[in-house]
Write a structure and sequence with these properties.
Elements lengths: L12 H23 L8 H10 L11 H32 L10 H4 L11 H44 L6 H9 L3 H21 L3 E6 L5 E6 L13 E6 L4 E5 L22 E5 L7 E6 L7 E2 L2 E2 L1 E7 L3 E9 L20 E10 L5 E6 L5 E6 L4 E5 L9 E6 L6 E6 L5 E6 L3 E6 L5 E6 L5 E6 L5 E6 L3 E6 L4 E7 L5 E6 L10 E6 L3 E6 L5 E6 L5 E6 L7 E5 L3 E5 L1
Antiparallel strand pairs: 1-30, 2-3, 3-4, 4-5, 6-9, 7-8, 9-10, 10-11, 12-13, 13-14, 14-15, 16-17, 17-18, 18-19, 20-21, 21-22, 22-23, 24-25, 25-26, 26-27, 28-29, 29-30
């Protein structure tokens, strides 16, 4: 039989171009798929050296460090895909897209990253165990309350539909009959809804209640006292401020926590924003962040109720100041110039110096247990300190955590005490698991620097804000943004959720901004409830006072502390 000759036709230029484009598209898709599994260095110097070794440009126009790291990750992914495509051809790439990414077998690729571990100290292991035990109790109670609320929502909605079905919703007798048949879970929802309506009505009527000059230089930070989980008894409401002069002042916040006795007139002669205590020189330079330790049962001693105020400054240090009742205080809260602050109701004394950061500090926050405090710094790290064992000579550092490519600014603790969130100038929000020391998740979405973060009391949401003027609400369960609020026209300096107490139940969120306003937002639909306008310049900080009045305090560049209620 004569041999048959096979004739191959040459592809046209258009067909070759289409084939090459299809091949490039497959390679790019596979590279994007694998890029998320490739680890790259976080330090700028290491990223720069790796780009040079790959003959890639160090920085393209308009790139920040996060974009440079993403470009390096994509370059490594493309190299890996091209190497496999040379071995297996385009069919191999198509098959690879249908299966799991292959395990790296090239020794050169394995040398790109190096995983190192630091042995935890005995103190850190003990702290992790304590935080785990605390978080398990808190989370169990919180989730049980959430389950009750959801069950009650279903039952309450069913009864409301039944009332509308009979067109008798306005009849008091029928409404009473319907509500009488509700179970405890449904009554809980009804109570929460009614309480929320009262809170929003109160907030919409907020006005400036009082204003005080807080310092000779601008006030940069403000915080209020809170109650720890399970803490009972009456504790004074206090406000703490820090400013550019480096001093700390304590102010009267009004009625005590857990205050129910309307006939008690023991402090009737005192007014909100009365000066309770002061220490003129705590830091050598500006205070950037301030936080007050939650009231604990152990804060009640023979000397009276005491608390601790933590401050972070650009002088590279954080300090802890103990606030205790002054036994020599007079009935009048006036300051005698010859005696300084000796006549004030509270003494403010330094009790610990936290040294270790290599650059200016930004923010400070107490763990819900009150036993630990976290600080952030421009040295790209955040640190965890032990409050009880720190002293004037040396602060007890439990953890030094890196992982951010840019300056770390914001910090906030989860209400359960299990997580801590940190933000940086690269627009990255990191969530760390305090019980294991690992990064739980991270969020990307802000266009500019992120300077503040705050967990919601419900434990399911995280609010962040920064230089882009927007507030983003992140869903921790779905790990993506659930709401984006165009809140302000300038940098947002601070966020605070309302307290988790029965009088507020985390129903609103407050924000402050360089645009000269503070704003209050509903946490049910993220709509604006009211705007607080009164500062003559930038509003540097904001916080919420516990209680049914939903009072808000703000401090500003105009050196004033203002109370809104």
């Amino acid at each position: 039989m004569a041999s048959e000759t096979v004739e191959y036709l040459t592809l046209t230029s258009d067909s070759q171009a289409a084939q090459n484009a299809h091949r490039s598209l497959l390679l790019d898709l596979e590279a994007r798929k694998r890029a998320s599994t490739i680890d790259v260095p976080t330090l700028p110097a290491q990223v720069r050296d790796m780009l040079r070794s790959l003959s890639q440009p160090i920085r393209l126009f308009g790139e920040d460090l996060a974009a440079i790291r993403q470009r390096l990750r994509m370059t490594l992914a493309r190299m890996e895909v091209m190497r496999e495509e040379e071995l297996g051809g385009i069919a191999g790439v198509e098959d690879a897209m249908m299966v799991e990414p292959p395990v790296k077998e090239d020794a050169a690729a394995e040398e790109i990253t190096e995983v190192t571990y630091t042995h935890a100290s005995v103190e850190l292991i003990r702290a992790r165990k304590a935080m785990a035990e605390y978080s398990l109790i808190r989370s169990r109670n919180r989730l049980e309350m959430e389950r009750r609320r959801r069950r009650g929502m279903v039952r309450f909605t069913r009864e409301k539909k039944r009332a509308r079905l009979f067109h008798r919703e306005e009849e008091d007798d029928f409404a009473a009959e319907v509500y009488a048949g509700l179970k405890d879970d449904a009554l809980l929802v009804k109570t929460l809804d009614e309480n929320c309506e009262k809170i929003y009505k109160t907030i919409r009527n907020h006005a400036l209640e009082g204003s005080q000059y807080g310092d000779v230089r601008p006030l940069s930070a403000v915080c209020t006292s809170t109650l720890s989980f399970g803490c009972e008894g009456r504790f004074p409401k206090l406000i703490a401020t820090g400013g550019w002069s480096g001093g700390i002042k304590i102010w009267n916040g009004g009625d005590d926590h857990n205050y129910n006795n309307k006939t008690d007139q023991s402090d009737s002669d005192l007014s909100p924003l009365d000066l309770f205590g002061a220490k003129s020189i705590v830091h050598e330079d500006r205070i950037m962040g301030i936080a007050m330790r939650p009231y604990l049962t152990s804060t009640v001693s023979s000397d009276g109720i005491s608390t601790i105020v933590a401050s972070a400054s650009i002088d590279l240090t954080a300090k802890l100041c103990k606030v205790t009742l002054n036994p020599d205080a007079t009935d009048t809260m006036d300051i005698d110039e010859s005696k300084g602050s000796e006549q004030l109701r509270y003494n403010v004394e330094e009790c610990a110096h936290l040294k270790g950061h290599a650059a200016r500090l930004c923010s400070v926050a107490f763990h819900p247990t009150g036993q630990y405090v976290a600080t952030t710094s421009f040295d790209h790290t955040w640190r965890l300190w032990d409050v009880e064992t720190s002293n004037m000579d040396e602060g007890k550092e439990l953890l030094l955590q890196d992982g951010h490519a840019k300056e770390v600014y914001g910090v906030g603790f989860h209400p359960d005490g299990s997580l801590v969130s940190t933000t940086d100038f690269g627009g990255v929000v990191q969530c760390w698991d305090l019980r294991t020391g690992k990064s739980a998740c991270h969020f990307l979405g802000h266009a500019k620097r992120v300077v503040c973060s705050e967990f919601s009391p419900n434990g399911f949401q995280l609010a962040t804000a920064g230089d882009d003027g927007t507030i983003k609400i992140w869903d921790l369960r779905r790990r993506k943004v659930s709401a984006s609020i165009p809140a302000h026209t300038n940098l947002i300096t601070q966020l605070k959720f309302s307290h988790s107490s029965s009088s507020q139940n985390g129903e609103f969120l407050v924000s402050s901004s360089f645009d000269g306003t503070g704003k209050i937002w509903s946490t049910r639909d993220w709509k604006l409830l009211t705007s607080l306008q009164g500062h003559e310049g930038k509003v540097m900080g904001v916080d919420v006072l516990d209680g049914p009045n939903c009072s808000v305090v703000t401090c500003g560049f105009d050196k004033t502390l203002k109370l809104w209620k």
